[in-house]
Each structure stands twice: as structure tokens, then as C-alpha cells.
Amino acid sequence: MMIGMKKTSMGRQKIDIKKIENQEARRQVCFSKRRTGLFKKASDLSILCGAEISIIVFSPAGKAFSFGHPSVESVLNRYIEAATNRGGVTNGNRGSLLDNGHGLSREYTNLAAMLEEERRKKAALEESDGGRGSGWMDLVNINIEQLGLQELQQLKKKMEDLRNSLLLTESRAPSASAMSTTQYDNM
Amino acid sequence: MMIGMKKTSMGRQKIDIKKIENQEARRQVCFSKRRTGLFKKASDLSILCGAEISIIVFSPAGKAFSFGHPSVESVLNRYIEAATNRGGVTNGNRGSLLDNGHGLSREYTNLAAMLEEERRKKAALEESDGGRGSGWMDLVNINIEQLGLQELQQLKKKMEDLRNSLLLTESRAPSASAMSTTQYDNM
DNA sequence: ACCTATAAATAAAG
DNA sequence: CTTTATTTATAGGT
User: Which residues form a coiled coil (chains A, B) (predicted)?
Assistant: First the structure.
């Protein structure tokens, strides 16, 4: 830089890592730039080290963006599988459902409680249906309290398989990295 | 820096973004450093902009690491919900199952096909069971081909709800950011 | 794990 | 979107 030349920019300023509030524009710009940077870093990491990565981001406005290598779905599948095979994950997040480190009886309790809760939800749902339902759903209505641990585990696996086939089916030809800017309607 | 002082480091070197091979140690170090950096960037973004973020990373060795704000599970739930409500997502990834942009009849076809496949899987599973099963699973055995679109959609939703309650239940008290280094056994 | 020199990301402004 | 000045991330070495 030449001596005596006036600065034409104040350059990058240091900012505190705390929520940007009451500056809609500044926050939006920051989000866009940093989301781009984050996805770039993820891409670099996956290429350099051959790591599999999935990132999902919701903007403050509620738009969803995602990055995945080889794909979001394949990584989520692998994660869910790993968690399932382990019987749970311990990831440091407070309130994580997939809470590991319990014995079988505890797992049984949790499973039964969860299914019980689901049964309540379903009942409420069908009630709100105003009795218009054809009743076919009752076919899935198992008397959960009667089931043993092994059966609960089988049901769990079955539901996981079903969910996988419905939502998270293995992706095909996932050899390259992919970036995406999926946008749902603002929610 | 003092004049005449010898450089004690060659500083950061420029590297190409291509897979590091045949240098196990270098790749491992790179992975650790960059994973840390990636999670830091994600944390900064979530704090600065109030964004919700979930990151799942599998190391080349197969270890899983995750970051989530407010939690991995809550963001995955929101993502799956958003995809479900839309009837699918369009995320640029090749082979994505949640492929949107089709009419209802096409969705029906896909759903029926998926459930059909699931039926086959289940049959195979029960066969490998050697007939030891108590048969309770048949209660869930619906004649899928007979169902209409609306019923398939209800079944889909039901299965999603069940899966959510089994694996991705809403996390409690997820007000703060969380970093985690979940480790499964190498796979 | 820690250090240093340099590459890369990015805040503010145009 | 582009430029610029500065902060931040990190490759290689110890």
C-alpha cells in the first residue's frame, strides 16, 4: 500500500458472536454469506477427507437449506441406522430422545411409554376426524401394553423400516457432492 | 517481526481441494481440525442469525459426529415435517426419494410401490424368522393394494408419527446450542 | 497439543 | 454483485 494513500475501506470489522437484532438487512446478509461459507467448508472437508456430511439449516425466516455428501438422505439413513443399532445415541444435546446407557428394562419402559404416547396421539387424531374414518386404521391398533420386549423391538424395527422406505430410501448413484438451496414456503 | 530473525514456520500452505490419499496421519489431522472449524462456523451462524442447524459427519473411519442447534433431533424433525407437508422436497441431490413436482396420481404410484416393497421386505424378514413369530405382526399387515390415495396418505402420516415418537421425539428444553462428538464403534 | 506464517473468509461500504 | 481491509482458519512443523 502506498504511503499517504487514504484507506478506501474500513475493512472487515470484528464482531461479537451474539444475536444480531433490530438490523434485518445486516442479519440477512450475514446469514447468506455465512451459510455459503459453511457449505463450502463442508464441501472441502468431504472432498479432502472422504467424509460423509449432512447439513440442514433453517433461516430465521424459516426457509430450509441443505447440503449433503453423498446426499442428505444417505447420511441421515446412516445416522439413524447407527443410532438404532446402538439402541440410542449420546450426543450431548439436552433432552435427546435417543438416550443411551440404559439397561434393557429401561429401554423397554421407554419404548412402551413412547408407544403409549403415540396411541394417545392417534386416538386424539381420530377423534378430531369426527368419526369420518373408515376404521381401517384400527388394523394397526395393537394392544401395546400386552407386548413383550422382543416384540416391541420388532415393532420398532418394522416401523423404522417402513419409515425408511417412505421417507429415507437409499439414494441411488450418490457419488458426487451436492449443494442445495431447498426452499419451502415461509412457515 | 525483528529484522534478520529466521522464520520459525513456513506458515499455512495452500493446498488443492482434492482427496488426501496415502497419508493417513495428515488426513486424520485435517479432518479433526476442519470438523472443529466447521462446527464453530455453524455455532456462530446459529447464534448470530438465530438459525436452526443440524450437522452430521462421518469420519473416513466411520465415526459419527454431530452438531445441533437447538438440537439435531429437533432440526431433523422440522426438516422431515417440512418435506412431508410439501409432499416431498426438491433439494438438488441426485436420487432423492422425496422427489416433488409430481401429480397426485404419481404420488399414489410411488407410495403404493414403496409400501409394496416394504411388504416384500417384511415377508422376507418373517420367513427368515423360521416361523417362530407369534403372528402378532400380521395385525399390521394391511392389504395395501386395496387402499386409496387418501388412506395411503393417512398411513404414511401415521407411520411418520410413529417413527417420530420412536426416534425423533421433540426435544425438551432445547434453548442453547450444543456440540457433540458422538462416537459409534467403527463400522 | 501448541506455534507461526500464510491462506481464506468476511464486515462494511460502493 | 464487487472491492478492500481486517479478522479468522489452518498447513506444516515441533
Answer: 108-172
Q: CATH number, domain at B68?
A: 3.40.1810.10
Q: How far is the CA of B159 from the C1' of C6 (A)?
A: 53
Substitution target in B29, B96, B184 with the highest count of A β-carbons within 10 Å is B96
* In the block, residue with C-alpha cell 395393537: A142
Query: For residue B54, what are the CA distances in angstroms to B69, B73, B74, B144?
Result: 6, 8, 9, 35
A132 domain-assigned: no
Residue B181 forms part of a structural domain:
no
Question: Could you tell me if residue B57 is inside a domain?
Answer: yes
Which residue's alpha carbon is at the shortest distance from the C1' of D6?
A: A12
Which positions ≥6 away from A144 have C-beta within 8 Å?
A112, A115, A116, A119, A152
Please, is A86 exposed, middle or buried when counting C-beta atoms within 10 Å of its C-beta (0-12, 13-18, 19+)?
middle
> Can you say whether the dihedral through the CA atoms of B176, A54, A66, A46 is positive or negative?
positive
Q: Percent of chain B beyond pLDDT 90?
A: 33
Q: Which residue of B has its CA nearest to A97?
A: B169
Q: Which domain holds residue A39?
A: 20-86
Query: Which residues, given as ranges, of chain B have pLDDT below 70?
Result: 1-4, 84-187
pLDDT of residue A74: 84
Q: Which bases along strand C come within 7 Å of a protein CB atom?
A: 1, 3-14
Q: What is the pLDDT of residues A28-66, one digit of tens each?
A: 999 999 999 999 999 999 999 999 999 999 999 999 999
Contact between B94 and A160 using a beta-carbon 8 Å cutoff: no
Report the range out of A133-147, A159-173, B51-65 with the highest average pLDDT. Answer: B51-65
Number of CB atoms found within 10 A of residue A24's CB: 11
Q: How many domains does chain A have?
A: 1
Whether residues A54 and B52 touch (CB distance < 8 A) is answered with no
pLDDT over 70, % of chain B: 42
